[in-house]
Design brief:
By secondary structure, the protein is an alpha+beta fold. 46% of the residues lie in helices and 6% in strands. It contains 22 helices and 7 strands. The strands form 2 sheets. Strands 2-4-3-5-6 form a 5-stranded mixed β-sheet, covered by helices on one side. A two-stranded antiparallel ribbon has the order 1-7. A hairpin with a 2-residue loop joins strand 5 and strand 6. The longest helix has 24 residues. The protein is globular and about 75 Å long. The structure holds glutathione (GSH). The site of glutathione has 18 residues, from helix 2, helix 7 and helix 9.
Length: 525
């Protein structure tokens, strides 16, 4: 039984396990923050970074594995063979940002913003109101905190206007004193309601239901009614599921019994979903019970597959009512903008949990999720659907996904290039306990023009229906440092976070196009 290197590395510098353990227990008005940004991140600090380590953190092993896997595939994460080599790009392969922006607008038109879809970049949500919101919501930068996710979903589903402040989680550095002076524990989520600070997600949930009676109730059952009793029972079952998952996912001991205990509780959950008529926990109605389950069923699907090789979502057999639930959740516009992807989740959990344990049955799934299996982050990408390793319950539109990724980069290209150039710069001091969380990293300034050119090459490819052969796009004649550039593109690739930076289909396209450029530069130089 293998224990992940990541888990043991983290174990030596164990961050608070409280992260998930809970100590036992019309048009939208948005002020979007740009790709890779957070409230004090790239868009404001101009250091290409963010306190949560930029895109993803916890990627160290993934990056190492990617590096190790390069030899057979020519994956550019390796510098092997390209150290000291140079490359160039011609104007057609890497047009100016202005012409890429024009091309993007021509192909993709105006960004179609659906006011009902939650947006991880929005710093305020007014839902058509014009008065100052009563609620200020504090959640983590990267949308990792499951308890914050519940409150986020509740606010969005109820359409309660709010402003947002993003606070880093502890394993990525100290919290701002402006926050800890209000919330000494530093724990998220928090709301300020009419200026009153309220902590603890269960209390916040209740307060939001009570204080906004004009908004549709998400638990519309009379106390003591059979429905209310069922809701309470289901909430308890959620905690039992959580405990059995925690037991299994964080331990390399008694893997088989951990799996069977977890699977049995999941059987019970599936049976309850069936007994209620579905697709939601309380039947046809979406309620707070679904909100309670969502963050953890989402994290379970990703982590159990990644660390244990067991597919929950899209299993197709043992948990059919759960699949119906996942599919129904996907139809909710709010959730579409909030849902993470397996890669992000698999790497954000270990630092929060103090490590997750692999069981050896997971290697194939893990490598596919990490994009080091030679196909999953490689062009050409087949469409996503309900049978994909990571099921996509809607229609995948690869062109729209490519345009989304291109838009995000074009809109913040200078900061993205600078952030990526950390890959060929210097590690930051102090370092933080989450692998690859490196807010103090120093970008390799002298290579930023090369990274910028390579990014323009990537965006041009994203905006084209046929990316072509990247080795014939990058040229041997040129002054850019190939190894520094490919390291930077790989650094960026491994830190694209969903939903923080873009949707899963867009992230998948961007990762694969980055690999395409890495390969081309490595082969041409
Ligand atoms: N019981 C709390 C648990 C909240 C919690 O554990 N929050 C974690 C993040 S998921 C936290 O803020 N940990 C401190 C940190 O990592 O900064 C609630 O439901 O609100």
């Amino acid at each position: 039984m293998a224990t992940s290197a990541r888990a043991s590395a983290i174990g030596t510098n164990r961050p608070s396990r409280s992260g998930l353990r809970e100590r036992r227990g019309g048009r939208r008005r948005t002020r979007p923050r740009a790709f890779l940004g957070n409230s004090n991140g790239v868009t404001e600090k101009d250091d290409g970074g963010d306190d949560d380590g930029g895109l993803l953190y916890g990627m160290l092993d993934a990056a190492r594995r990617a590096m190790a896997s390069v030899s057979g595939e020519g994956v550019g994460t390796s510098n092997a063979g390209s150290e000291g080599r140079r490359f160039g790009l011609d104007e057609t392969a890497a047009p100016t940002w202005e012409s890429l922006a024009e091309r993007c607008a021509r192909i993709g038109g105006e960004e179609d913003v659906d006011a009902d879809v939650a947006d991880a970049r929005a710093m305020e949500r007014l839902f058509g109101t014009t008065t100052a919101p009563r609620v200020k919501f504090y959640r983590d930068h990267a949308s990792w905190c499951p308890y914050s996710q519940k409150i986020w979903m509740q606010l969005e589903e109820k359409r309660i206007p709010y402003t947002l402040e993003k606070i880093n989680m502890r394993c990525y550095g100290p919290k701002p004193t402006s926050f800890t002076s209000k919330v000494p524990s530093g724990a998220l989520p928090v709301i300020e309601l009419d200026g009153r600070v309220i902590t603890e997600s269960s209390i916040i949930t209740q307060v939001l239901e009570e204080e906004f009676p004009e908004h549709e109730s998400l638990l519309p059952y009379a106390p003591g009614s059979p429905e209310a009793q069922r809701a309470t029972r289901l909430m308890r079952l959620e905690r039992a599921l959580f405990s059995s998952w925690m037991q299994w996912i964080t331990s390399s001991w008694s893997d088989a019994s951990g799996q069977s205990s977890f699977s049995e509780v999941l059987d019970e959950v599936d049976a309850e979903l069936g007994a209620g008529g579905g697709p939601y926990f309380m039947g046809e109605e979406f309620t707070l019970v679904d909100i309670a389950y969502t963050p953890f069923l989402e994290r379970m699907a990703a982590s159990v597959l990644y660390f244990k090789g067991v597919k929950i979502e899209g299993n197709g057999g043992r948990w059919p009512h759960l699949d119906r639930w996942y599919a129904a959740m996907f139809t909710r516009k709010v959730y579409r903008g909030i849902k993470s992807d397996y890669y992000t989740t698999a790497h954000d959990l270990p630092p929060q949990l103090g490590g997750c344990a692999e069981n050896g049955d997971n290697v194939q799934a893990r490598d596919a999720i990490d994009g080091v299996d030679g196909t999953s982050w490689r062009l050409p990408l087949g469409p996503l659907d309900g049978t994909s390793l990571e099921p996509w319950w809607g229609e995948d539109d690869p062109k729209a996904a490519r345009i989304e990724a291109a838009r995000r980069i074009i809109g913040n290209h200078a900061n993205v290039a600078r952030f990526a150039a950390r890959g060929c710069g210097k590690e930051g001091r102090p370092a933080y306990s989450a692998p690859l969380s490196d807010p103090n990293a120093v970008p390799g300034e002298e290579h930023i023009p090369a990274v910028d050119a390579a990014l323009r090459m990537v965006v041009a490819a994203l905006l084209s229906d046929d990316a072509g052969d990247s080795a014939s796009i990058a040229t041997r004649e040129g002054s850019y440092d190939a190894a520094a550039t490919t390291r930077s593109l790989a650094y960026l690739r491994d830190r694209i976070g969903v939903p923080r930076d873009m949707s899963y289909p867009a992230a998948r396209q961007f990762r694969a196009h980055l690999n395409w450029a890495i390969d081309g530069i490595a082969r041409a130089s």
